[in-house]
Amino acid sequence: MSESPGAEDRSVIHLLLADEGRVHVETGVPVFDRLLEMVARYGSFELSLEVAAAGASAQVAVAGRAFGAALSDLLRAPGARGHGSAHVPSTEALAHVALDLSDEPALTSNVDLTAAHIGGLDGDLVDGFLRELASAARVTLHVRLVEGRETQHVLDAIFKALGVALEAACRVRSGKE
Questions:
Q1: Burial bucket for residue 174 (CB in 10 Å: 0-12, 13-18, 19+)
Q2: What is the pTM of this model?
């Protein structure tokens, strides 16, 4: 569990790799809460995340930093793979997410959702979340939209693929690998 400083922009997070974990997310942006819950379910994480920040942009950024910082510990745990990749569909959309530990964290993406707006979430906030996550987790994160037109399906595919790729990266190597 970690807390970030500051009265205006703070978060409380609990993140574990678990076969079937509890998931509770409160960022103040319901559609974004659902996307983070999807990451946890597809990634087999137990996640509790509460964010208190002023405005949707700040809430999403704080969530990205908190989630990335918690992931950094799991990604660097003894025996953890530290890299992962996944293709995951959602209706007509198909996304690919790949990540690897990095001393130069970065986000590379071909997804442009700047004009998108779903349930109070501007698409460019998703890019901001992914950038904060990559920076705090200290990973190189590649997000590719292979196919997709419907914004909600595109977001679902991206966050599902992110969860699967993170689970693979955090999983401890077996003796056979």
A1: exposed
A2: 0.88
Burial of 149 (0-12, 13-18, 19+ CB in 10 A): exposed
* 34: containing domain: 2-170
Gyration radius of the chain's alpha carbons: 15
Number of domains in the chain: 1
Contact yes or no for 153/143 (Cβ under 8 A): no
Helix, strand, or coil (residue 13): strand
CATH number at residue 34: 3.30.230.40
What is residue 2's DSSP assignment?
E
The answer to whether 96 and 146 are in contact (CB under 8 A) is yes
Per the domain annotation, does 175 fall within a domain?
no
**pLDDT tens, 103-150?**
999 999 999 887 777 766 666 788 889 999 999 999 999 999 999 999
CA 1 – CA 48 distance, rounded (Å)? 9
Residue 35 lies in a domain: yes
> Does residue 160 belong to any structural domain of this protein?
yes
